[in-house]
Design a protein that fits this description.
Chain lengths: ~325, ~500
């Protein structure tokens, strides 16, 4: 099967997956206690008022009918409107996607070169002091959960030393890049370990493989063998991990968004679920599902390019 | 997706921030914030509802929305420090002898677009709130206005017709969300009000920027600009304040306040009697349909311990009555204290020995789960067992209105009359304790048709005495509302949250 046909088939399958995700999300939100009217009424839960809110929101119609209507709208590219504010869901996605994309892209720009560099360095000095230091530091970072690292960094660099802004509250992320430093450190810390470890392992395997040794015997320069022959096949396993990390970042890392006050997709999701704002939750589910499908497809195609034999396209 | 345990996280943040600060001995000296100064931009951090926030003041629901509405708009009346209605856009109100027709004279005020605030704007605003097809929060409060029979007498005089005699009508004018908008307004993307600040820009879930309105009827604010920013986590609000990113952090925890009270990096402002903390017993079902058992519960609560442990001392003990410090509060009722022996006796007499009662609670409001846990501990050894059940926070209030027999309860400030009307009459919409007594309803009707303040106060006291003796609310404490500011911020009031002077930025200045 050609690469193109494979990609088309994967995309078609992805469409089914997105629909399945949206349906499951709909059922799950339905299963949650309370609806948008109850959540909005809050500590003033007068049943008459809740009924009025329900009627005003159109929640008095059968859930299946509302869901069908929403899916129909989706087919036309219409994500519907928020139950609570009446704003189009697309606006929410647009507002949240900006900060999430800024964080994700910058995190990946830092993460990928850094983890490859560390992985390769460690592999080339396998067992040496550099390898040990890199291993110790990355494994150490990996064992600290995001929120703990964030709290420590804020307390030390944001509050006590005052070197960096402790939060991004009210800030324009790109105009005030200083607010991004601490969140990016937190986001990069853990994936840095997993990816650099994979690169290291892949590189060690590759350096010991037949084709690399053969290339060396042919008299090709060591540098060229390392980076043109060994590295690509060493990267293949790491690509899958980068894909998972990308997916995680594009989903809006809720902890980091909450601690640093970055109003991205994760924050919108938390608010929408708490408010039982079903159209917004479903809109986000579509975005997250599409992201996952696309990112994984791209990763597979990339792996195929890097190391054709490692992926079975059949 | 990673989940964040808020409580553990907050504790950790607080602890680490304290640890970080402990090593930091010298900070800049506290600036005297005692003399008002004009100018500057104050940034105020509030928790928000993310992107679901709206600028329509009639839809206001969250604290940040209430604070913003107050900056942009006016109500006819608002609640003073003793939570009684004070004239605002209404200069004065005069009822007729039947208490069913009220003549309101408006102040000479102008909207931000230069148009005067007219009687028609008032009627149109109330008509919008009362629209049967909508569900605005102030609707139930305004429901007793007979709008078709109300009229604009002239540009600055409105005559309201009421469906029944109601001497507390000013409380209605001060209802949450009953703001006056220019007649015909439906689009609030660039809101126009008559409040002390006018609109500059809005990014939902992030910030709202306002600027001074020089034509404000009560005098222009000190600040040039006011920016509301959103930070949902309390730790983030505190950190932003410590880091100099905001000058005002709304709603801090007692733990944060305790940690920073002695330092000079933030000023802590406490507004006493802002939120009542309680347990609600339902009277219409076992086991609390038994009066002895209710009294036993009242006597089992160790209130000072609850205030000390749950509110970290930032509060006062309650006496099972709503509205300590408010107008008409029955402060002559003796304070209840813990009496284990009498409680044991009453439990025995009620035949409830060995009984296990479920106490429903949730994290819907700060301190509720902690209070439930502490109380369950205080009940031990009485013959009764209280089992704490933590429910879903998003549907908590609606769930506990219907289900269970004992639940955590919390309420913000409102006039005692409003508390009674909403929660303690047979037809009340949010009657959690299911207190329904014809003679009590009759007393309420008597109170709201008694013109004389003193006589009316006596009726309210009588009602409170019966609630104290037999009611279902175990109101153990009143929490302070805690706000942190930069040391150079002046003019912060300590009136209870939700009243006029709370989050009132036109009176605030940067020193």
């Amino acid at each position: 099967m050609s690469l193109r046909r494979y990609a088309v088939r994967r995309l078609a399958l992805g469409l089914v997956q997105v629909l399945a995700v949206v349906t499951v999300v709909f059922l799950l939100v339905q299963a949650l206690p309370g609806d948008a009217a109850v959540a909005l009424a809050g500590d003033n839960p007068d049943p008459r008022r809740i009924e009025q809110i329900r009627a005003a929101m159109g929640l008095d119609r059968p859930p299946l009918e509302r869901f069908g209507e929403w899916v129909g709208g989706l087919a036309r590219g219409d994500f519907g409107v928020s139950l609570i504010s009446g704003r189009p869901v697309v606006e929410f996605l647009h507002d949240g996607l900006g900060p999430t994309l800024v964080l994700a892209v910058l995190a990946l720009v830092l993460l990928i070169p850094l983890s490859v560099l560390l992985g390769v360095l460690a592999a080339l000095r396998e067992g040496g002091p550099v390898d040990r230091v890199v291993t110790t530091v990355t494994v150490g970072l990996h064992s600290i959960p995001e929120f703990a690292l964030a709290v420590v960094l804020i307390a030390v660099f944001g509050v006590q030393l005052g070197w960096l802004p402790p939060t991004a509250v009210g800030a324009d992320l790109l105009a005030q890049p200083a607010v991004l430093v601490l969140p990016l450190v937190v986001l990069v810390a853990r994936p840095l370990c997993s990816i650099s470890r994979l690169v290291r392992a892949g590189m060690i395997d590759a350096l010991a493989s037949d084709h690399v040794r053969h290339a060396l015997r042919l008299g090709i320069g060591v540098t060229r063998v390392r980076f043109a022959h060994a590295l690509p096949s060493a990267l293949a396993p790491a690509v899958q991990q980068v894909a998972r990390t990308t997916d995680w970042l594009l989903g809006g890392v809720i902890v980091v968004e909450a601690v640093f006050v970055i109003p991205g997709l994760g924050t919108i999701l938390v608010d929408a679920v708490a408010g039982r704002d079903l159209p917004v939750v479903q809109g986000l589910a579509v975005v997250f599902a599409v992201t996952t499908v696309v990112v994984n497809l791209v990763a597979d195609l990339l792996v195929f390019r890097l190391a054709p034999r490692s992926v079975a396209i059949a | 997706m990673h989940s964040l345990n808020r409580r553990g996280f907050l504790g950790l943040t607080a602890g680490l921030s304290l640890a970080a600060l402990a090593g930091c001995g010298t900070a800049e000296p506290t600036t005297a914030a005692s003399t008002p100064r004009t100018g500057g931009r104050l940034r105020a951090a509030f928790a928000g509802g993310g992107a679901k926030e709206v600028l329509d003041p009639h839809l206001a629901n969250l604290f940040v929305e209430a604070a913003r509405s107050k900056a942009l708009y006016d109500k006819l009346a608002d609640l003073g420090p003793d939570v009684s209605a004070q004239p605002r856009l209404a200069e004065k109100w005069e009822p007729d002898a039947t208490l069913t027709r009220w003549r309101i004279t408006l102040r000479q005020a102008t909207f931000h677009n230069g148009q005067p605030v007219r009687a028609d704007d008032v009627l149109a605003s109330y008509a919008r709130i009362l629209d049967p097809a909508r569900a605005f929060r102030a609707k139930s409060s305004l429901a007793l206005i007979d709008l078709p029979n109300s009229r604009a007498v002239d540009e600055r005089t409105v005559e309201f017709a009421l469906k029944r005699p109601f001497v507390e009508f000013p409380n209605v004018l001060a209802a949450f969300g009953a703001y006056i908008v220019p007649a015909g307004t439906e689009d609030f993307t660039t809101p126009v009000g008559s409040g002390p600040f006018s609109f500059t820009s809005f990014e939902p879930g992030r910030s709202v920027l306002l600027k001074r309105y020089d034509g404000y009827w009560e005098g222009a604010p000190h600040l040039d600009e006011l920016e509301f920013v959103i930070a949902n986590e309390e730790s983030a609000r505190a950190n932003a304040l410590l880091g100099g990113q905001v000058e005002y952090a709304h709603d801090l925890t007692p733990t944060t306040a305790r940690g920073h009270a002695a330092g000079d990096r933030m000023a802590i402002h406490r507004a006493p009697n802002s939120a009542v903390q309680a347990f609600a017993m339902k009277l219409d079902r076992p086991p609390f349909d038994n009066r002895d058992l209710r009294e036993a519960m009242f006597l089992l609560a160790d209130r000072p311990q609850l205030v000390e442990s749950v509110l970290a001392g930032s509060g006062q003990v309650g006496n099972d009555l709503f509205g300590k410090g408010y107008q008409h509060y029955a402060d002559d009722v003796p304070q209840r204290t813990r009496d284990l022996d009498k409680a044991k006796f009453l439990i025995k007499r009620a035949g409830a020995e060995g009984l296990t009662v479920k106490l429903d609670t949730s994290t819907a409001a700060a301190g509720m789960v902690e209070a439930a846990t502490v109380f369950a501990d205080q009940v031990k050894g009485s013959g009764l067992t209280v089992e704490v059940v933590t429910g879903n926070k998003d549907s908590y209030w609606s769930d506990t209105l219907k289900n269970g027999s004992l639940s955590s309860f919390r309420s913000g400030a409102m006039p005692i009359e409003t508390h009674i009307a909403q929660r303690l009459l047979s037809g009340s919409g949010t009657n959690v304790t299911k207190w329904a007594r014809p003679e009590f309803d009759a007393l309420y009707d008597k109170a709201v048709s008694t013109v004389d303040d003193k006589q009316r106060g006596e009726v309210y006291r009588e009602m409170q005495r019966s609630l104290h003796a037999e009611g279902g609310y175990l109101m153990w404490g009143f929490a302070d509302w805690i706000v942190g500011t930069a040391p150079n911020v002046g003019g912060i009031s300590t009136a209870p949250a939700n009243t006029l002077d709370w989050a009132r930025f036109d009176k605030v200045w940067l020193g």
